[in-house]
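Example complex used in Figure S2.
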Amino acid sequence: MRSTSHTIRTRTTRPAARQAARAAAAALCAGALALSLTACGGDGNDNDGSSKESGTPTGSTVSLPKLNGQSLEVAAVWTGGEQKNFKKVLAEFEKRTGAKVTFVPAQDPIINFLGSKIAGGQPPDVALLPQPGAIKQAVDKGWAKPLGSAAQEQLKKNYSPGWQDIGKVDGKQYGAYYKAANKSLIWYNAKVFENAGAKEPKTWKDLLGTAQTVYDSGVTPFSVGGADGWTLTDWFENVYLSQAGPDKYDQLAQHKIKWTDPSVKQALTTLAQIWGKKDYLAGGPNGALQTEFPASVTQTFTGGDQPKAGMVFEGDFAQVNIGETKAKVGTDAKVFPFPAVGAGSPVVTGGDAAVVLKDSKAAQALVTFLASPDAATIQAKLGGYLSPNKNVPLSAYPNEVQRTIAKALIASGDDFRFDMSDQAPQAFGGTPGKGEWKDLQDFLKNPKDVAGTQAKLEKDAAAAYGSGS
Amino acid sequence: MTGTRRTVAALFLLPALVLLGALVVYPIGYSVVRSFSNASGDGFAGFDNYKALFTDDGIRTALKNNIIWVVFAPAVSTALGLIFAVLTERVRWGTAFKLVVFMPMAISMLAAGIIFRLVYDQDPDKGVANAVWVGVHDTFAQSSAFPKAHPGRNSPLRPQSGGFVTAAAVHTGQAVGLPLVGVAPDQMPDSAKKAAAAKPEPGKITGTTWQDFTRGKGVGRLGAVDPGELGYAGMRIEAVKDGKVVASTTAAGDGTFTLPAQADGALLRLPASNFKEPYNGLDWLGPSLVTPAIIGAYVWMWAGFAMVLIAAGLAGVPRELLEAARVDGANEWQVFRRITVPMLAPVLAVVTVTLMINVLKIFDLVFIIAPGSSQDDANVLALELYRKGFSEGQPGIASAIAVFLLLLVIPVMLFNMRRLKREVRR
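Predicted assembly (895 residues):
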């Protein structure tokens, strides 16, 4: 009540003061009010922010303009806990700048969602795009606006060159990667490994040995969420990146070499060493093809001593699904990096980049904030989130497992590779029941047909890359 | 006078016309225009999009599935509705029964889709369809105790037609070890006890068959009984000489077994019956069954609708006709075939045609029930429209599909309207 009357009387500074007062500890309240009253356009507000983030060692590292009365829309595909946590980050931005930020839930593929929004004349100010290909598409269509100097400064300060580069199109910075995923992980049920006497494998050969040991103990080694095609493309990408190396990986991602290349054959043959054994997959290939990703994770960590499977491959985000079970990440559910098939362990990543669609001071400020360690630290603490930002303190991550994953991601420097299917045209790498998704699902059903799978992949890739969509 | 009346009429019609124009005519017109332009919408593409309709594999499957849908879904729903309607007329609790059959209509397609996604779940512990199927199957064929057992490393056993057989012949006075691994502890028979190494006995073949795996320790001593390892209680063992079974026995609780002297020189076999996999039911949502399965869900929803309409028509059939037929000596089947069905023909036609229109645009059930891996096999035109338009960025082709669907619906609609007009005139 009281604050409402304030807002009406003096419009310029009060909303910020109101926000601050509401959230600040009672003792800080008076000081915060005074600060934001005196320092209207300066950094005073940021200091408020840091004093509220109790225990954040970084504090405020980014200066943001005052944006009272402005409103922003942010579109992203996140749902559930992810969305809730991101909204907390947005709330912090609101608190610091006084702008009002609305989260617009988008559907996959977001680029088409944005297309219809833009056609309707109502684009969101900022969108989080999950693929480098989508950023390029947005630039080609003239939707995306280049990032301002403040945002670029944050990027230079906080990101390795590799992460900066994948946000660039034709040398210009358009995207700031806010969220990263480490997709080179295998989660395992610690109890199963203990019962079987199995050890975390370092190489592909070890992995096969571990799988056999787990199988010998009476538990199916792997759970594969084959109903979702992307889990299968991620399997392939890890094997391929490690076996054929980053150069070939880049070439295949750009379709400069064909899918009929011997390196693809080798990777598929390697993959068939696991996919080809029906006793190695929970439910056999047919069961795996009807298991969606969330179920593939939960079935690995439910059932006490006798889960449906001992291991499940996927990125750090599998934690969200593990959270739905009684298993505790770090003690019941453990993780090891994807074993080295060739020379070294692969690091395949994914990520969401913030892109400005409506150029304004407020939109630029939001991207600047998202590129700062402050924003990332808030969400890191809430769990289920990885930041490519190297200045996010590892201590911000809520548990040891998350810290390990984050460390591996940052340590890979520029040797990581972005998810190949995310770089491919949508029709090939991102449509259920089509292209690479479908072809690898068919391969899972019939792992003997390496040559036929390659031919189908090449045919679909040629059609999708050719049309240039 | 007439002039003003015209104006008044036009005034009254205007809101409806504006609404119809903006919400029906304009979108149809724009879809037609869009279907002749390319993916980005800024160039003329001629008939390319329509050509794609008949050359694209995905659309072809969708077309094929749509035909299956249009033929079977309305027919089965109407047939079931007719049977329900005729039968409920004669039952005391008919209204209650009708209510139950009609109830699924109150559920949205989306909710029904989610329900049936669960019903058809592969896992018999989750999916009702497979639970019933497996239950029926298992009453006729028992599953075995050691489904996933297999030889470990350096095993004396090798696989043979689903079972396992020793590599070397056994002789009397010998104690044989038949180790396997891979049986989950909770699947071990309750009678299983700690495995014991068999002692050799002259004139007999003795041995042990056991799980050569200790929890938490792995194999332990390979091929030797370690403390804590369990015997395969009830495992059937056959002695085979020249392809003939000369002796057989089952293992005791500690896994030990004894075979008489005539087994001397035979190979020991653990027959396949020990290892039969538990039956896992049908692959309802696999590529071959997915369309019939989804049609089943549709029938579950719409049979009630057909029943209610047909029951209403049935109420209008003059009783005297039926009575007269019965007096003339017709039996119930003849009455049904020769009187009830012909009298109901107009209603049946309306119901079938309405359902056909409904089925042509089927989308939600397929979208929700079919898992990603078989979405391609369950594809229908409306789903393909959505996929082309919203996930592949091909709005031109999507519009062409929409126009094509419209063309398919028009004749059916005309038929329905004609029929309606005739009814009114009557």
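The beta strands of chain B are 157-160, 163-166, 175-180, 205-211, 236-241, 244-250, 256-259, 267-270. The CA atoms of residues 44 and 198 of chain B lie 85 Å apart.
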